[in-house]
Amino acid sequence: MATNEAYMVVGGCGFLGRHIVEMLLARGEQNVSVFDIVQRHFDSNVTFYIGDLASSEDVTNAIKKSGATCVFHTASPAHGAGRTIYELVNVSGTRNLIDSCFDSTVRRLVYTSSAGTVYNGEKDNINVDERLDYPAVALDAYNETKVSAEKMVIRANSPELLTCAIRPSGIFGPGDRQMITGFYSVVLNNQTKFQIGDNTNLADFTYVTNVAHAHLLAMDKLADVYPYFSFRDPISYVDASMG
Ligand code: NAD
């Protein structure tokens, strides 16, 4: 059901971000905007802000102009971009976004993290949940920066800004520009004569609209978490949490 909120999808021209935009529009949301470094979609009913997450000016301008109250943060560089870019976008960019959220009308932030934040290849994660600790050493630079971003988002959770992080594993479906292309190039390059593990390994893959739906559910649910206090009123927040 449509709400009266103003939604911004950061990374909304990407694979997952686009599905979130389409799902918001499909449920009748009237106020949807996108912040992305490149514009790949053109909808008359969506406002596109083109800018770099690593630029605090770009982020602040977009957030302020949009009047967003709810932000989905799905932006991240593609695998292979390198540590410097990962740090710029995932770490500095996420910090810029959180700062802008606190300094604006944004009240809820849902971050797309990754299952890679709790997996470094040393042991299988079977039937685990969010209580699982981060590994001492991350799988790679990409996941190291996803961990930093996720920690910032979770720590920012407060009466002023309700936050949540979702950790998808592999995502597949229409619009994917990375996974199937990667698998396909392996076949094209005749790189198929290898086996990973002992042929009993399991990996989770989730259909993209299910991941997008999870983001909308998380965003909606954040609104219910503290139903009794008014934002920016620490006294009633304390009362509500004690009740
Ligand atoms: P994607 O590359 O399709 O989308 C990311 C979007 O972010 C792109 O539109 C890109 O232009 C934008 N972006 C990148 N750098 C930016 C910058 N500096 N400023 C503004 N925008 C920028 O990726 P995706 O597959 O849709 O992934 C979305 C999120 O889901 C990412 O955070 C990723 O870590 C996470 N994730 C993806 C998978 C997967 O299998 N695809 C699995 C787990 C987690």
Structural commentary:
It is built from 7 helices and 8 strands. The chain has 243 residues and is of the alpha/beta class. The chain has a single domain (7-177, 205-242), classed as NAD(P)-binding Rossmann-like Domain (Rossmann fold, 3-Layer(aba) Sandwich), CATH 3.40.50.720. The longest helix has 20 residues, at 83-102. The protein is globular, with a radius of gyration of 19 Å. The two termini are 29 Å apart. Bound molecules: nicotinamide-adenine-dinucleotide. Nicotinamide-adenine-dinucleotide (NAD) is lined by residues 11, 13-17, 36-38, 52-54, 74-78, 89, 93, 112, 114, 168, 170-171, 177-179.
From the N-terminal CA to the C-terminal CA, the straight-line distance is 29 Å
What small molecules does the structure contain? nicotinamide-adenine-dinucleotide
**What value does the Rg take, in angstroms?**
19 Å
Q: Profile the largest sheet.
A: 6 strands, parallel
Q: Specify the structural class.
A: alpha/beta
Helical amount among residues, as a percent range? 25-40%
Order of helices and strands: EHEEHEHEHEEHEHH
Strand content: 5-15%
CATH superfamily: NAD(P)-binding Rossmann-like Domain
In the CATH hierarchy, the architecture is: 3-Layer(aba) Sandwich
DSSP strand tally: 8
Low-confidence stretches: 228-243
Q: What would you call the shape?
A: globular
Domains, number: 1
Quick rundown:
This protein has 243 residues and is an alpha/beta fold. The protein is built from 7 helices and 8 strands, in the order E-H-E-E-H-E-H-E-H-E-E-H-E-H-H. The chain binds nicotinamide-adenine-dinucleotide.
